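re: ur msg from earlier - yeah i can do the zinc ion complex, just paste it... oh wait u already did. ok heres what im feeding in:
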Amino acid sequence: MIRFFLSLILTVTAIRHSAHSAELSRLKKEQRVGGFQVQNLYSDSDGKIMGAKFIHSSTGTPVFLLQLQTVPQVFTWVDTPTNSNQGLPHALEHLLVAKGVQGHYFQLLHQMRLTPYGAATFSDFVAYGLSSEGSVDDFFESFHALLAAMYRPDFSDAEASKEFYHFGVSTGRGSKKTLIEEGTVYDEMRATQDRFRYYSELNKRIFGAESPFAFRAGGDPDQMRSVTPEDIRQFHDKYYRLGPSTGFIFVFPPQENVSAILRKISDELQQFSQSGAVSPAATSNPKYPFHSSNDLAPAIYPFPSPNAPAPGFIRFAWRPGKADSQEQLNCWKYLLARWQTARVLYCKESSSIAKPALSIREQQRLIPNSSLITLLHTP
Ligand SMILES: [Zn+2]
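and the outut:
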């Protein structure tokens, strides 16, 4: 699912003192600048302001701007909370930046300008990244092409079927021809069919059967066959709208002019905005409603593997709960990320830490090349 993916370099390097970095530090919360409103400012370990979060005034799109000594780059995402295993978010990840006139133009520009890019599908969003090894103007030329590919796609039905799923003809030995199923996305998901089923099955129990985390955004081959190009286009129309459910993280060297960059970003977002974008209501509720299950029984989900003794996977989860403090939340994260007795002792002052029902060794004995999931009681 993940093709060559651009990683943002988030190591804070020495920030050069310049008029433009000072410009960022002079911003105030809720100040309007270049089509944006300031939401937050971010400082480095020396206390210098090196980043800001803005809201694009006319679309409500969140935009983060960081000043780091690296090449101009952007990471952008589109929320795509799917309610099926048809793989529609994954279809768009493949089609938008590579097919149709817009997609082919973006590809050509990426080769000519040496601008590395990447795209990947996650549980409830699709992410795209782009960097430029040239000037800021080169970056914005590629950024414009990326937005055009994402928000004004023109891929054909034939391209959609060929990339996603279609019937093909295989010629084996001799003259015998066989009808086969194929497609770049279909083949990709066939290679890992049922491999991560344990993951989405446990998510169903944690978040509820209708939660986007309960589905495989990449697609389940059995459910991909019925997808039409029209289904893919409708999914695009529903979710690919600049607004609060999309976002951008830009990185520019500190010496670049912040006001000029903000104006350019705002102009680009304006060109690709659509009516109907709504501002999110301020809420402390979870992004998607939770309906966790009372089913706490362990389950086993076999998956095909050419290597019978290869290890399987164990996934544990606790039912969602509300932490009373940031310290308690940090303690839980630490415990869950590195689950060992020592960690339990380390966090023992938190009365809500769940005790595991089985030790890791006991769990490992139960894994014959399959996956086991367990939901544990919390006290
Ligand atoms: Zn893929």
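cool cool. The chain has two domains: 1-167+185-279+289-293, 299-376. ping me if u need the other ligands too
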